[in-house]
Design goal:
Largest sheet: 4 strands, mixed
Distance between the termini: 56 Å
């Protein structure tokens, strides 16, 4: 058997190696999820260590929520892996490439117009992905999230949102891809440098414009009104020389009851965004908004549910400031810059290796391309399939690094004198989002980009560390 495998042409070896590795990763992930599901099923009572910070009712709600999510993840993951395998075995990629060629031929564009055919391929592939993923997304939103009180969307709002996301994605993806392919085509021997610089520029532009021009297409952003909270946020930012220009509140409650906060922007133009579900005292703003233009209020009420099923506890002002102290700690400690540098070093390495491998015809033959070597297909094969072992290793290393950064950001907020407020905020946010505080050590190590709740609470109350 081994001799027969070794005697196979190299393109077959590549193809089967990709399939075997993909299923190996799936089995590993499924095993980790099984270990965590076992925790959800067997941990029926609040552990003694959690007795003072979590009541039994919340503990049971979070256990059932996470168990439902894990079961859903198992079936959706199995479907995704099976679908991907069938696409490869049945020649789905070369078939879709041929269909996109026939499509462009209707407009008088022959095979020499490879970039046009590539854009047709991308649009068809994303359409296929959107339609096959829609039932899973609907079930997740209107069964699991609905059952546990998080979903605030109506079906009409959800579908309109999905169409809008698809349209915006195409408006960004197609022009960027066409320019990238053009750069690779004309870049000569050093095209990988120009391609990397182009993707770096695009990513910086997208990060800069996202919250100002893209995110408002989906959610309403309102400047945080003048008051005690805004004054204290500005004062805290000034104390660490954070160049804050604006503070926004995003109306995340029309979509979900989950909460979040983040900052964005480059150089001297930083903005902070708070989800309304994070703010305990934001309801007066909602009342003021409802008292405004009746037309806007009516539209909002028609698009999303007017009464959330779970009234979110949120955080009081000192706790919100502690959460922001943590987020600003990421900036002050250089975590954002470090992540960008790591990302771009990885991007440059991948483009360099792509330049080395793109001329290997057997890579294309392995996936059914015997007569042509389209650049877009080469990008897909090399970045998605050939680099998959490297991508898995890199993902794990970044997860470990992220947990380290989270501890450091917590320590920074503690150094600002906000330890007790962050402690209570973490408990509230865990409760509001039904986070389960008990985790299997292997599942946690592999998946958690944030440390488990108990570890963060211990670090906040334990001796200070450098």
């Amino acid at each position: 058997m081994l001799q027969e495998v070794l005697a196979l042409p190299i393109e077959y070896k590549i193809f089967y190696a990709v399939l075997v590795f993909s299923w190996t990763v799936y089995v590993w992930e499924a095993y980790l999820a099984y270990r965590q599901r076992k925790i959800y099923r067997t941990t029926m009572h609040v552990p003694t260590e959690l007795g003072k910070i979590m009541d039994s009712e919340t503990f049971e709600k979070s256990r059932l929520y996470q168990l439902d999510k894990s079961n859903f993840g198992f079936w959706s993951g199995l479907y995704s892996e099976t679908e991907g395998t069938l696409i490869l075995l049945l020649g789905g990629i070369p078939f879709l490439w041929k269909v996109s060629g026939n499509l462009t031929a209707h407009f008088g564009l022959g095979p020499e117009y490879e970039i046009s055919q590539s854009l047709g391929f991308l649009m068809l592939a994303t359409l296929f992905s959107a339609f096959t993923g829609l039932p899973w997304s609907l079930y997740n939103t209107f069964v699991i999230e609905e059952k546990h009180g998080f979903n605030q969307q109506t079906l009409g709002f959800f579908l309109k949102d999905a169409v809008k996301k698809f349209a915006v994605t195409q408006c960004i993806l197609l022009p960027v891809t066409s320019l990238l392919l053009y750069i690779i085509k004309i870049g000569g021997d050093y095209f990988f440098i120009y391609a990397w610089l182009f993707t770096l520029t695009v990513s910086l532009i997208l990060v800069t414009i996202y919250a100002d021009y893209i995110a408002p297409l989906f959610d309403k952003f309102t400047p945080l009104p003048e008051g005690e909270l805004k004054s204290e946020i500005e004062s805290m930012a000034m104390s660490i020389q954070f160049p804050l220009t604006k503070v926004y509140v995003v109306e995340g409650s029309k979509r979900s009851s989950h909460s979040n906060a983040y900052f964005y922007g480059f150089f001297k133009n930083k903005r902070i965004v708070l989800f309304d579900t994070l703010l305990e005292d934001y309801s007066p703003l909602n009342k003021t908004e409802r008292a405004g233009t009746g037309e806007e209020t009516e539209a909002t009420e028609n698009e999303s549910k007017s009464k959330p099923k779970n009234k979110k506890q949120g955080c009081n002002n000192p706790e919100v400031l502690a959460v922001l102290g943590h987020e600003l700690g990421h900036w002050k400690l250089g975590h954002t810059v470090k992540n960008i540098v790591i990302s771009q070093m990885n991007s440059f390495l991948c483009f360099f290796l792509f330049a080395v491998l793109i001329g290997r015809k057997e890579l294309f033959m392995a996936f059914g391309f015997h007569d042509s070597q389209p650049t877009l297909i080469g990008l897909m094969i090399i970045f998605q399939f050939i680099f998959s072992p490297y991508n898995e290793l890199l993902s794990f290393c970044l997860t470990v690094l992220s947990r380290r950064f989270e501890f450091q950001a917590d320590a920074f907020a503690r150094g600002m004198g906000r330890s007790s407020e962050l402690y209570s905020a973490l408990i509230k946010l865990n409760k509001d989002n039904l986070g389960f505080p008990v985790a299997d050590w292997l599942f946690s190590m592999w998946h958690y980009s944030h440390p488990p709740l108990l570890e963060r609470l211990r670090a906040l109350t334990g001796p200070k560390q450098d």
